[in-house]
Design brief:
Layout: H1 26-40, H2 43-53, H3 59-72, E1 75-84, E2 87-94, E3 100-107, E4 116-121, H4 137-153, E5 159-165, E6 168-175, E7 177-179, E8 184-185, E9 192-195, H5 198-211, H6 231-236, H7 239-243, H8 255-260, H9 267-274, H10 291-305, H11 309-321, E10 342-345, E11 348-351, E12 366-368, H12 370-382, H13 388-394, E13 399-401, E14 406-408, E15 413-417, E16 420-429, E17 432-439, E18 444-450, H14 458-467
Antiparallel strand pairs: 1-2, 2-3, 3-4, 5-6, 5-18, 7-8, 9-12, 10-11, 13-14, 14-15, 15-16, 16-17, 17-18
Helix pairs in contact: 1-2, 4-14, 5-10, 5-11, 9-10, 11-12
């Protein structure tokens, strides 16, 4: 999920590149020193900057910067948006992706300044005058393959990509290793963990039940989960609010999840762990991404259908769509084609086994292939799974963040970037990243699945979306 964030500078980093001239104000002096040190990827330069401006930074803070520098490849300065003696606002682009961020640096008086504050907005919309030129179909498909190869050679991408236009596959290719220990390579049939992309399946299941008259999207979930412990939440949060993340139901990750990770094997296990807690905010008040909300939807599906969540999506979504390689079997089950995930820790890729839930659930955690995700999108568009009216409703943004172009419908992310609208979903966690986008007006679809940390898949989806033909 990509939304606007603001964090202290030690969590994110930038590197001064390009020909934009940065002013010589006190704020710009700090900005220049910080970016030069970060861009060097040299611990000694970072330590020198720290001693001058941020003496409270820890050894781990410095390592975080080096890790982030490896992820971004550095930053190019696109534009100085605002400059005052004690403040500067800069538009930046990651060197290893097309991601644009906005950095703000504010300093106090003195030399060196008595205080330094930095913040960043991620994934802001690229200004129209800085738009990346669009390519022809053959050009962008070729460029995408070359970009993936470059990143794979740098050990920054491992996974598979599928690009299609109006049902015709234009690119289907894999890179990297599914298991680095035994040297198993990825193929386009490799099963990658897809994280929150599962939410699309949960959404479609609920919409199917709504079309059949078995649930109402505007009914509180307590109508179906009659024994739910928190009566206030159960009587006020509707299925529609769970689908669009405005129910205030909170997350599932944190200390409780870490302590019970191996015991969470079903939606019921999550319900027992979290059901008594209070809402984070009144229902409908604001958008707040809620994994627990989709666990509740999974429980509703089970209650109404009389089937386990897994059996329901298998029979009513995967089989009709021809998805024979998608599921949520436990991590303890041996699946020869399921890729092992790798997360970056202290200058190396390490297996993510210790972070995985025992089994995927309605909020995410399953696995799939690029071909199966393509078949899912095809089945959606053809009306095989839900009506076109339901799909249209699900892919209209209930929430929309104008600076980033990011929106959310009913279990689908909805994007409006560089003038092109698309829907789909991203999934990401340590050692896994996947994303699908459907550009319905232009007829394009792209699926990228990876067994590395975010944004391994996302950066390639963005690369394609900013360069693909803008017309049908």
């Amino acid at each position: 999920m990509r939304i606007k964030l603001s964090l202290f500078a030690l969590m994110f980093s930038s590197a001064l590149m390009g020909s934009t001239t940065v002013p010589t104000t006190p704020a710009a002096k700090v900005f220049n020193a910080w970016l030069a040190a970060y861009n060097s990827a040299d611990l000694r330069q970072l330590e020198a900057y720290k001693e001058t401006y941020h003496r409270h930074w820890t050894v781990q803070d410095m390592q975080n910067m080096l890790d982030d520098r490896r992820r971004t490849g550095g930053y190019a300065v696109l534009r100085i948006e605002k400059s005052e003696p004690q403040s500067i606002t800069v538009l930046l682009q990651e060197k290893d992706s097309d991601t644009v961020n906005r950095e703000v640096v504010e300093v106090g008086s003195g030399s060196p300044p008595a205080s330094v504050q930095m913040s960043i907005e991620h994934d802001v919309q690229r200004p129209a005058d800085l738009a990346i030129p669009r390519m022809t179909q053959s050009q962008v498909v070729g460029a995408l393959g070359e970009r993936a190869t470059t990143l794979a050679q740098q050990d920054k991408f491992s996974g598979a990509i599928l690009v299609a236009h109006r049902g015709n596959i234009l690119l289907q290719r894999s890179w990297g290793k599914a298991d680095r220990t035994i040297g198993q390579t990825n193929t386009f049939d490799t099963q990658f963990r897809i994280g929150s992309m599962n939410k699309m399946f949960t959404s479609v299941a609920v919409l199917q039940l709504a079309e059949a008259g078995k649930v109402s999207l505007d009914a509180p979930f307590g109508k179906y989960l009659t024994a739910f412990p928190n009566a206030d939440a159960a009587s006020h949060v509707t299925l529609r609010e769970l689908l669009n993340h405005t129910g205030g139901t909170g997350d599932i990750f944190g200390p409780d999840f870490d302590a019970n990770r191996d015991k969470l094997r079903s939606n019921d296990d999550y319900l027992r762990l979290y059901a008594s807690r209070q809402l984070d905010h009144p229902p409908g008040e604001k958008f707040e991404y809620s994994n627990y909300g989709f666990i509740l939807l999974g429980a509703v599906i089970e209650k109404v259908s009389g089937m386990s969540y897994y059996d329901y999506v298998e029979q009513h979504i995967f089989k009709p769509a021809g998805m024979s390689s998608t599921g949520s079997l436990p991590e303890s089950d041996v699946l020869p084609r399921r890729a092992r995930g790798y997360m970056w820790q202290t200058n190396s890729w390490v297996a993510n086994d210790s972070t995985l839930p025992a089994r995927g659930a309605a909020a995410g955690g399953g696995y799939s292939t690029i071909g199966d995700i393509f078949r899912f999108a095809q089945a959606l568009q053809s009306g095989k799974l839900i009506s076109r009216a339901s799909l249209n409703a699900a892919t209209q943004p209930v929430f929309h963040d104008a600076p980033t172009g990011y929106g959310y419908g009913y279990g689908f992310e909805v994007l409006d970037e560089a003038g092109l609208k698309s829907y789909g979903h991203e999934g990401g966690a340590p050692g896994m990243n996947g994303e699908v986008r459907v550009f319905a007006d232009q007829g394009y679809l792209i699926v990228v699945l990876s067994n590395l940390d975010p944004p391994a898949a996302h950066r390639l989806v963005e690369y394609f979306s900013l360069r693909m033909p803008g017309s049908q």
